[in-house]
Amino acid sequence: MRRTLFSSAAITVALVASGAAQQPPARGVRELTASLRDGDPAVRAQAACSLRELGDRAAEAIPALVALMDDATPLKADVCETNRNWGGRDGDVTTPGQQAAAALVATGSRAFDPVAGALRGPVWFARRNAAWALGALRDPRGVPLLIDALGDREAQVREQAAWGLGALRDSRATAPLVARLKDEDVRVREQASWALGALRDPNGVPGLLDALHDSATPVRRQAAWALGAIRDPRATDGLSAAFRDSDGAVREQAAWAAGALRDRHAVAPLIPLLTDTEAGVRRQAAWALGALGDARALEPLLSALKDSDAGVRRQAAWAVGVVSKQAPLNR
Questions:
Q1: Gap between the Cα atoms of 22 and 296, Å rounded
Q2: What CA–CA distances, in Å, run from 217 to 12, 224, 246, 253?
């Protein structure tokens, strides 16, 4: 029978994470804090995860966690038994620095000033993690700091600053985020589009309408979503034009947004999408027409009941039920 050897640090991390450790909590925090400097990056990450589970009881670990935020060692996201990865784009990859940022957020408002200091530090990866953490802390004091970070020389810091501002949902960020719709980096422009949708500030609409013409598909798609989230009728014409976008994902998102706006001026432009080449677009168009509830869509929706895609037929059946309340069925 094969035996597996574990370091004492790893054993401490596992015991605290499982709740099986019998030592007083303060001692557990001290030992986990020491493990943040372990030579094995997986142990460092697990120690951060375990401290996160302790929440504000891990406050004494804040300085060590801040110091760990610059650790960019890539690890599989399942390195922690209780991992809650963030950032979305990295998929199944995490780092000790990201887990340290999550632990700092769990400690609460006491982490604000140390994290804010890290946002002004020399290591860009730490600044990136700090920007995320300031958004996740949901403290309005972070708004001006994150607005400044939108001008960081590193694109990944700007991207996370945009995310943080969207999470904070403060209209002071609207104009700076609109400016980032012209950023040289695609991911920053995409994140700024999302953030403007999260803010739901109508002042972001003109910039987002321009972003519907961005050269990058992800930006156009996110801008369409944001316009639907803001629900300003000024977006109807721009979204209708986006129904002719070369990318199906953009057409699909624009159809959703048009339905979310509840502006019946979109009915006529939406109807042709029921025969789009992509089933996802046809499904979303059927939903949008149902959401708009306009009798002009009844006949096209009845035709969509014969679509080759079952998902389109299901969505059309729902929409027919809604729209038929506006006009009696004659067959």
A1: 70
A2: 47, 11, 9, 11
CATH fold group of domain 232-331: Leucine-rich Repeat Variant (1.25.10)
Provide the terminal-to-terminal Cα distance of the chain, rounded to the nearest Å. 74
Which pTM does this prediction carry? 0.87
Residue 306: strand, helix, or coil: coil
Q: Which H or E element spans position 94?
A: strand 93-94
Q: Which helix (H) or strand (E) holds 156?
A: helix 155-168
Reported as a single tens digit per residue, the pLDDT across 185-222 is 999 999 999 999 999 999 999 999 999 999 999 999 99
Contact at 8 Å (CB) between 164 and 132?
A: yes
Of the given ranges (70-84, 249-263, 297-311), which has the lowest mean pLDDT? Answer: 70-84
| 86: pLDDT strictly greater than 90 | no
Rounded Cα distance between 32 and 26, Å, is: 10
Q: Measuring CA to CA, which residue among 67, 76, 78 is closest to residue 34?
A: 67
CATH superfamily, with its number, for domain 147-230: Leucine-rich Repeat Variant (1.25.10.10)
Domains in the chain: boundaries: 10-83+91-139, 147-230, 232-331
- Rounded to an integer, what distance in angstroms lies between the CA atom of residue 199 and that of residue 60? 34
Q: At residue 225, does pLDDT exceed 80?
A: yes
Which CATH number is 10-83+91-139 given?
A: 1.25.10.10
Nearest-Å Rg of the Cα atoms of the chain is 24
Both tokens assigned to 326: 């506006």
- Spatial contact of 152 and 119, defined as CB atoms under 8 Å apart: no
